[in-house]
Amino acid sequence: MKYAVKIVLSIWFLGAGSFLNAQHNSEKDNFRMKPKLTGTMYQKQNMYPGSEFLFDEWQTGTITLKNGRQLKNMQLNYNAYTNDLVYAIDGNTAVVVSKFQVSDFIILNSTPERKFILINGDIINKSFNSEMFVELLFNGNITIFANRMMKVNSSLVMQNRFNESVYYLTNEYYACMGDYCFMTAQNKRNFYSFFNKVEVNKIIRKYNLNLKKENDLVEFARQLNQLGKMAEIPRDLKQKQ
Amino acid sequence: MKSGEYRINSKYFRRGALWPLIYFLFLIISLNSFGVDSNKQVIEKIYLHTDRDYYVSGEQVFFKVFYNIVPQAEDPSKILYVEINDLSYNQINQVILNISENSAVGVIQIPDSLTSGSYIIKAYTNWQKNQGNELLFSKEILIINRFGKYGSIASYNQYLNAERTAKTSEYEIQKSSLYSKQIKDIPLILSVNKNTYSKREKVQVNVEVPSDYCLINDSDLSVSVQYVADKSIEQKTPSINNWFSYITEQYGFTENQQTLSNRNKQINTVYPKETEGRIITGVVSDIITGMGLPGALVYFSFFDTLSYLDYDITDENGSFFFAMPDNLSISPGIIQVWESPSGVENSTILLDLKVDNKASVYKAETLTAEYINMKFDDQVKVFEINNTFRTVQIAENKSNNNFPLRPGYYGLNKTVYPRDFLKLSGFDEIAKEILPGVRFRLENGEYTIRILNEYQNAFFTQPPLLLINGMPVKKYNYLAVLNSDDIHHIDIVSKYFIVGSRVYHGVLSVTLNQNSSFHIEESNTLIALQNEISNQKLIFNFPVYDTPEKRTSRIPDFRNTLYWNPEIILSANRSSFEFYTSDMSGEFRITIVGVINNGIPVSKSITFNVEDKY
After folding, report:
1. Looking at the structure, do residues B50 and B28 belong to the same domain, yes or no?
2. Which range marks the domain in which residue B230 is found?
3. How many A×B Cβ pairs under 8 Å?
C-alpha cells in the first residue's frame, strides 16, 4: 500500500508538470495573430417556424481557411437553407462566414467526424459561378458527397399551418471521378460507364447494398475504390460536361 | 535475473533509500516540463554566401542563404531578412525573402550613392532576434563608389599615406575560434583541370564528397568564382562549418543536435517565429510621454480594390502584431491607429524595424574611402566596361503569384457603378440619387453616414465601416467632394458586418478610378508599408567562348565574378561545372559553400590563375 502511494505521488509529479506545460502551450496556441473570420450577423430571412440549420445545437468543429490556417474549437452550424457556414461568438451571436476565406470545416461532435468542403457550384450544375458547401462522404479514386438542402414545405405555407416546422431536409448525392461529377449517385447504372458492370453488381450483391441508403452508398464507394480499376471517362460524358 | 541481485535491489527499496532520489528526479522532470517552453529551445542558424566580397556602388549582391533549425523537427521560419548596413548600423537596403527547403537565393541592390567603405551584409529571421545579436550572421563587404575621386594626384597621395584604421567596432566580438578552429567536417574535394589558364579559356571544376561519406540526402551547394582584387584586405568571414559550430557551442546542444543539454544561454521569446509568413509588429505610444498605450485599436488593411481588414488591440506594452497574409505584395499595407486611450491625435505609431542593428561577429577593419578608391580603381573601370557592354546578362525570372487570397467582406447587398448613371457631382448627390439605403448628410458642420439595416428597415444608429480602396477612413470630408468620374464602384453591406469579434453597422466601400487624386497621407498614426517579399530570380548568363570567333571577339569582357551558381546539386557524391575566364588576368578564387545530407555544412575554397595572354 505504501509503495502504491509513493508510485501515485511520483506519477502525480510527472503528470502535474505535463499538465502545466500543456496549459502553457495552449496559451501560446491562443496567440493573438490567429486569423480572423469575416462575415455578417445571421438574421433569419423569413418568419416561418422551424430551423434552417442542419444541427439542432452548436457543434464543436474546426474551420480550415484557404491559406491552410485553421481555427479550432469553433462553435459551428450549417445553414442548409442558405448554404452557409455559421459560427457563434460569445455564445449568442451567430455569424455567417465569408465563403471567400473557407476551404472546409469539420464537425467533431459526430462519430465519425463530418467534413464539409467548399466546391464550385458549376461542377454539379448548381450555384453557377459561386461556391457552395457539400458534405464529403467518401474520398478516394471516387468521391461521394452530399448536398444537404433544407427546403420549405410550400403546402404548409400556403395553408398557413405555422404550428409545425415548415422546413424539411433533402439530400442530393453526387459521385465524382476525376473532374467528372454526376448526380443520383444512388443509381448503380451511373457507375457502369466507369467500372465493370459485372463487378459493380457483384459488390452490391456481396455486401447486400442498397444504394438508396447513405451508409451503403459510402460502403459501395469504398469497395469500388479498392477495386481500383476505373475506366476512362467516356468522351460523350466529357463533352456533356 | 539472479535471485541475489533482486534481493539487494529490493532491500534498498524496502529501506526507502531510493525513494527520495526517485521523487527528486520526477520533480525535476515536472518542473522542467513546465518551466521550459519547448519553443524556446529552438535555435536557428543562418549562413550567407555572396558572389563576391567587394562591389562597386550600383551593383547587385548575389547571395544564397543557408538555413538550419535545431531541433530539426521544429517548424522552420519562412521569412528571411537580408540587409546592407553601414558601420553606424544604418540600414541601407533590405530584401525580404521566403525560405524554401532550408535556403533562399536572392539579390540585393547597392545604391549608387553609397560612399566608399566597409558595409555589413546581414541575414536573419525574426525568431533569431531572440537568440541575441551576436548570433545573427553578418559579413563585411567593401563598396567602392564609382563616382569617387579615384586616380587623381590628390587621391594618390592620400593613398600613399593611407592609414588602415583598424577601429574596433563596439559590436565586435573577438571569437578567434570562429576563424581558426578546425572543425571536424566532411572534406569536400574541389579541383580544377589546370592551375593556370589563359584569357577566355574554359575552366572545368569538379566537386566531390569522399566516397566513404555516404551521401544519403539532398545536397544544396552554391559556388562563386571571384577575382581576388587585393589579398591584403580580404575580409574575415567564418566558414559555414565554424559558424554553425559556434552557435551550437553557444547553446550547448548535444552532438546530434536534437536536444539541449547544459545550455549556456537562455533565450527569451519576444519575437515570434514567422512560420507562415511575415509578421508586422509595432508600438502605439503616447506622443507626449512616449509610453506605450495599452488598449489601442490598430487596423491593418491594404490600399487596393479588394478588401482585407485585420485589427489588433495593443497589449500592456502598447505593442501590436499582424500576420501578413500570403501573396499580398502588390499594394501597400496600411497600419493605422483607429482608437486610442489618449485619443488618436495624441498617439503615435512606430513599426518594429525588425532588428536593432547591433549585430556582428567579425573584426571590422574600417578603411578610408580614399584607400578603397585607390585600391579598387580597376574594379570601377571594370564595372563601367561591363555595364556598357553588358557582358553578363542577368535574366529576370519572376515567379507567377497565385491570385491573392483576400478575405473580403461578405453579404454584399448592392454594388453600384456610377458610370451607369448620369454624371453626378458631390457624394451627397450620388448617395441621394443612386445609393439606396445610404444616408450622407452634413449635420452641424460634419458629414455623417448611415446605412439602412435591411432586416429592420431602419437606419443603423452608428456609422458604418467606410472603406476607400479597401482602407478604413474616418473622416468623411474627402468623400464629399467625389464625383461620378472619380468612382469606379460602390459596395454596400446593409447588415451587421463582423471581423473577428468586432461588429460594424454596415459597410460602405468606395473603389476609386485609377485616375483619382486620392492618396494615402502618412502621419503619426498611419503608416504605409510595402510588403515586398522578393521573388525575383536573377540568373547570370555568362559568355561562352567555344569558337575561335568568340574568343577573338572585340567585345571586352572584364567580369570579376566569373561564375555564380547558387544551386549546385551533387549526384552520386560528385558534380562538375564549367565556365570561361574573362579578359581579366590575375588570381581567382572558387568558393563552394553548402549543406549535404540535410544539414551537414561543408565548404571549400581554391584558387587558380589567369595569365595575361589569350
Report:
1. no
2. 43-265+357-399+537-610
3. 112
Q: Would you say residue B324 lies in a domain? A: no
Express each pLDDT in A133-190 by its tens digit: 999 999 988 889 999 999 988 888 777 777 778 899 999 999 888 777 887 777 888 8
Which residues of chain A are within 8 Å of residue B39 when distances are taken between CB atoms? 28
Q: In B, which residues are within 8 Å of A89 by CB distance?
A: 498, 501
What pLDDT is stored for residue B341 in this prediction?
93
The sign of the dihedral angle between the CA atoms of B240, B243, B247, B252 is: positive
Cell of B356: 536593432
Q: How confident is the model at residue B250 (pLDDT cuts 50, 70, 90)?
A: confident
B182 touches chain A (CB under 8 A): no
Is A20 part of the contact surface with chain B (CB cutoff 8 Å)?
yes
A83-133: pLDDT as tens digits: 999 999 877 788 998 887 788 999 998 888 999 999 887 777 665 557 889
Residue B209 near residue B600 (C-beta atoms within 8 A): no
Does B156 score more than 70 pLDDT? no
Q: In whole numbers, what is the pLDDT of chain A averaged over residues?
A: 78
Cα–Cα nearest to B473, from B434, B521, B515, B429: B521
Q: In this predicted complex, what is the ipTM? A: 0.74
Nearest CA in chain B to A37: B500
pLDDT of residue B538: 67
Residue B278 lies inside a defined structural domain of this protein: no
Q: Cell triple for residue B44? A: 536557428
Are residues B107 and B125 in contact, defined by beta-carbon separation less than 8 angstroms? no
| pLDDT for B170 | 37
| Pair B461, B372 in one domain | no
pLDDT at B449: 95
How far apart are the C-alpha atoms of A200 and A216, rounded to whole Å?
Answer: 13
In chain B, whose CA is at the least distance from the CA of A101?
B407
Three-state secondary structure string covering chain A: CHHHHHHHHHHHHHHHHHHHHHHHHHHHHCCCCCCCCEEEECCCCCCCCCCCECCCCCEEEEEEECCCCEEEEEEEEEECCCCEEEEEECCCEEEEECCCCEEEEEECCCCCCEEEEEEEHHHHCCCCCCEEEEEEEEECCEEEEEEEEEEECHHHHHCCCCCCCCEEEEEEEEEEECCEEEECCCCHHHHCCCCCHHHHHHHHHHCCCCCCCHHHHHHHHHHHHHHCCCCCCCHHHHHHC
> Would you say residue B587 lies in a domain?
yes
Do residues B164 and B143 both lie within one domain?
yes
Using the beta-carbon criterion (under 8 Å), do A67 and B326 form an inter-chain contact?
A: yes
Q: How far apart are CA A106 and CA A135, in angstroms?
A: 9
* Contact: B272, A9; criterion CB under 8 Å: no
pLDDT of residue B231: 66
| B19: chain A residues, CB-CB within 8 Å | 6
In a domain, B102, yes or no: yes
Q: Which of residues 269-288 of B touch A (CB under 8 A)?
A: 272, 276, 279
Number of structural domains (chain B) is 3
Note whether B77 and B201 are same-domain residues: yes
